[in-house]
Amino acid sequence: MEYIVLLLGFAAFVSTSIGGIFAVRLRKFLPYFFAFAAGSLVAIAFFDLFPESLSIAGTLGIPVRYLMIALVASYLFYNFLERFFLTHHFHEGEKEEKAHMMGPVGATGLVIHSFLDGVAIGVAFQVNAAIGVIVAFAVIFHDFNDGINTVTMMFRNKHKVRNAVIWLFFDALAPIIGVLSTYAAHIPESYLAIILAIFTGEFLYLGASSLLRETFEHEYWRMMLPMLAAVLLIFAVTSVV
Q1: Upper half-sphere CA count for residue 236 (Cβ side, 13 Å)
Q2: Residue 240 and residue 121: Cα distance in Å, rounded?
Q3: Domain count, the chain
């Protein structure tokens, strides 16, 4: 089992790296991927993560209100993280020195986020293998976007390709470190319900707010097709595992 988890962590490494390459060479196809990833994350949040969180909470007598607090707090945290550290847009008239500094600042935020993605994989496997695989699937698709954002963040802040590649490597490595960190201690089942609710809030924000926003400038029906395909795929997978 440990080898499978590490292999999925490595898959996240590869996905992040490929995303960085896409950011340079194949940008015209990115909106379709964003739409598919958005549908995947939202579907996993509702079809897999939160139902499992409710199931564990019901078994252990944990109030559902606690789960909702964790979910909302997680959603707001990632909104704050993107708003103040990972924003892609800068106001006209900003000094170049400030914009230049925001490249590593934003990239650092993405690295931390990718580390938490790895933690999500490791924690999900502590619940059971089926949930672990599904969460890993979502993280791998989302980390493709993280690779894109890391390179874009550096380029938009006047950094050279070499610096962008260095930060891309850190971002790609972060999920593996996150997975490894979960081996340090086994998480008690009483905490898993809350943790799954936290990841539900994260996936809802990333899918419904962050990734989906990247598709707004494109034709609605073109974006709906990959999004719907992703939702149906996750529904089918979660129905049989």
Answers
A1: 6
A2: 20
A3: 1
Residue 210 DSSP class? I
Cα-based torsion angle of the residue sequence 217, 215, 85, 202 in order, rounded to the nearest 10 degrees: 150
Tokens of 118: 């790895």
Q: Are 24 and 187 in contact (CB under 8 A)?
A: no
For residue 77 the two structure tokens come to: 């945290």
Q: What is the pLDDT of residues 166-175, one digit of tens each?
A: 899 999 999 9
Which amino acid belongs to residue 24?
V
- Residue range(s) defining the domain that contains residue 93: 2-240
Q: Per-residue b/e over 102-129, b at no fewer than 16 CB within 10 Å?
A: bbbebbbbbbebbbbbbbbbbbbbbbee
Spatial contact of 132 and 121, defined as CB atoms under 8 Å apart: yes
Task: Tell me how far apart the alpha carbons of residues 58 and 163 are, in angstroms, rounded to a whole number.
Answer: 49
Tell me the whole-structure pTM to 2 decimals: 0.66
Give Cβ neighbours of residue 147 (< 8 Å, ≥ 6 apart): 15, 16, 17, 18, 19, 20, 21, 22, 23, 168, 171, 172
Residues 193-231 have pLDDT tens digits of: 898 898 888 888 878 887 777 777 777 788 889 889 888
| Among 1, 8, 149, 179, CA closest to 81 | 149
Dist CA 13 CA 16 (whole Å):
5
